[in-house]
Amino acid sequence: MNSMEEKIYRASPAVQLVLNTLISHSKVGIMIPIPQYPLYTASIALFNGTVVPYYLDESKGWGLSTEELERSIQKARSEGVEVRALCLINPGNPTGQCLAWDNMKEIVAFCKQERLVLLADEVYQTNIYTAERPFHSFKKVVKSLGSEYDNFELISFHSISKGMVGECGRRGGYFECTNIDSKVLEQFYKIASISLCPPVQGQLLVGLMTNPPQPGDASYDLYQQETTSIFESLKRRAEQLAIALNKLEGVSCNAAEGAMYLFPTITLSAGAVAAAKAAGKQPDELYCLDLLNETGVCVVPGSGFLQKEGTWHFRSTFLAPEEQMEEFAQSLSRFHAKFINKYR
């Protein structure tokens, strides 16, 4: 096993570095989940690769089936695409799901069978809100499978920018390479060396995240108090917002198992779809822009993350201060009723 702490200030440049190294021509394919975090489609396009989409199943809590993975890779190969890697975001962004242990084992077996490098985006691993679906790292899963997987190629990404340390403010990150050939690691170091060192604050916080205070340390009690308080508040906000969203007409929202987002599906009328088309916008984009203009609340349309044709979504964080969540929910409810009635 080889480990590497990248000279970067967050995990996003690490993802770009790995994709840049993997993609050597336009027919190199990278499998990515849909809905997806736009970093992946944008980076693959930048490096002139091919996106190989696979769809998460909203009806099953944004679950992932190996049947869907097989459909996706076979379609790509039939079109002459050389699929080299499978990317997973766990816990999910924008969908907030967390993969089950058995499902992860199936995914690892799929990658082994298809000779794919597994890219595990695990930056939300401390944002887990349900005891029924705990976080497991893909490295842990691979190591549990025995000697047959001793050469399994895995690259794992983590960041302080999420979780309890950075809270989407401070930036710092790294990636770890497991069973990656030394010649490939040399290329990683070569590309990374183009960049300057990350800011001191980022380096310090990565150190704090990977080596937190231990029992008996002077700062242990305060660290536990602060991180626990942040976590419990995020969990309450996630539950409160999901309840509020599910009360809206034509809106259905899975609970957040992890991460910092809810990704509700919204049913929009033919009138709203026609109005969006006349304005040169996607229907969920029209909804989100009207929401912003009327209430000052900013959510991101699902069309920005890609989604199944004919469905509409938006992504909302639950990062607003807890004392503002009730006001936020009420503003959203008033706007939603007005929007639905306008285009009914």
From TrEMBL:
Keywords: Aminotransferase, Pyridoxal phosphate, Transferase
Aminotransferase class I/classII large domain segment(s): 14-332
Keyword Transferase: yes
Cofactor: pyridoxal 5'-phosphate
Pfam families according to UniProt: Aminotran_1_2 (PF00155)
Alphabetized GO MF terms: pyridoxal phosphate binding; transaminase activity
Stated family: Belongs to the class-I pyridoxal-phosphate-dependent aminotransferase family. Alanine aminotransferase subfamily.
Oligomeric form and interacting partners: Homodimer.
Name of this chain's protein: Aminotransferase class I/classII large domain-containing protein
Organism: Physocladia obscura
